[in-house]
Amino acid sequence: MAKYSVLLTGILALWTPSVSGSVVARQNNNTAYLDAISEYVDSIYDDIWNISQTIHANPELGFKEVKAHDLLTSFMEAQDGWNVTRSLYNISTSFSAVFEGSGDGPVVSFNSEYDALPNLGHACGHNLIATVGLTGALATAKIMKEQDLPGKVILFGTPAEESLGGKVDMLEAGIFDDYKIDISLIAHPSNGPDTPYMRTFSTSRLDLEYYGKTAHASAAPYEGINAQDALVLAYNAIGLLRQQSQRTDQIHGIITSGGTSINVIPDLSTASFQIRAQDDADLDAWTKRILKCFDAGSVATGAELNLTMRENSYSAMLSNDILASSWSKYFVALGGTVPDAQLDRIKQQGGSTDQGNISQRFASIQPQFQIYNENGSVPTGGPHTAQFEVAAKSKKSFDKALMTAKGLAGVAVEVLTVEGMVDSVKKELEGVEGARGRKRRGVGREIRKVKGVVDDLHFH
Ligand SMILES: [Zn+2]
Ligand SMILES: [Zn+2]
Fold this sequence. Notes:
Elements: H1 34-43, H2 45-57, H3 66-77, E1 82-86, E2 95-100, E3 107-112, H4 126-147, E4 152-157, H5 166-172, H6 175-178, E5 183-185, E6 188-190, E7 202-211, H7 227-241, E8 250-257, E9 268-277, H8 280-301, E10 304-309, H9 321-333, H10 341-344, H11 355-359, E11 363-365, E12 368-370, H12 386-391, H13 395-417, H14 421-436, E13 446-450, E14 454-459
Parallel strand pairs: 3-4, 3-5, 5-11, 6-12
Antiparallel strand pairs: 1-2, 2-4, 7-9, 7-10, 8-9, 13-14
The protein binds zinc ion (2 copies).
């Protein structure tokens, strides 16, 4: 039987939000600084609009967001009191911008994404995510300055969210630990309703090849080893396995090549797949079952399988209830509406984000805000569609992004000003971990052996 090895990397923090706990009631109805935040954000409207439009008009793929990196860092360098570091920790298109308050205090952070999709441009609206992070951080610093507040606000430029996991690299490099962040704020555009709760899957991705042996397909087919058949068998095995999957297990993928000539037994076939599950523990179990399907193709045909797990698995997003409640308070005060929190926080998961990995380590929220076409209609397609790309550059979408950012600035200022809030927020996160009884922090590696299928699985 063919020998092959699998490298499975990615954070496997084995806890998920407890859905049984009660949603934290709003701490207070105080939105004391919201008018000042709002006024300030409106005063920088044109600058931020230009940044959003420029990023949208210049889509760049993950880790190649050179123009966006340059645009955002140049802009932040021109702001009073900000200390900007380009290409943070040698991650070329990442950056940090730090504003120090009047002394020691909570460290609130915002993340800006700015990568685009192959062939689709800014069809995930990351130009708007860049806008929200930038605006939220600036507005927070403005209040800190005015009120002479202790603490710190940091804007991180977090590249390559689409598939490559820029934030996972940043986490593993120790950036968020070294900057001692207390909370991590970000937001994402959507074609669904506004909500503080983003619910995403844990996910990992893999690429594979089957190696067979060519032979004349008519004269001597018995001399061949059919690599295409191996892949077809595996694909069908996965199809049958779906019946035994949990409702929250997913797998989807593409066959990227079979043979090249109809009269030659194919000696090479290739494919890529993405596996998703409700949390890292389920992803681990589901992945092991999927790998056996690929093994089956190899066993039946004799083709050799080479399977590579891509680096940077994503963990499910864990939303902090206290921060979610705070954002909702500000968002509603700005004229927005949010769903009932009890239902909203347990709604169906969809998609995946590398902010999930951060959220398992640091208290975080990623509100989703609905975007619109220029005429006010909601785009008929969601993220990763051409319709969404069009909506991501409309003025109405930008206005909603600013409203979202004002809400996040409200959250940040609340954490900076309300006595004990940062402790409560962190305590909630620790409680979620404790509830699952697992304290793994996603660092360090262990090697597991899975008989017959995989030689080495590296988890971290
Ligand atoms: Zn996306
Ligand atoms: Zn996205």
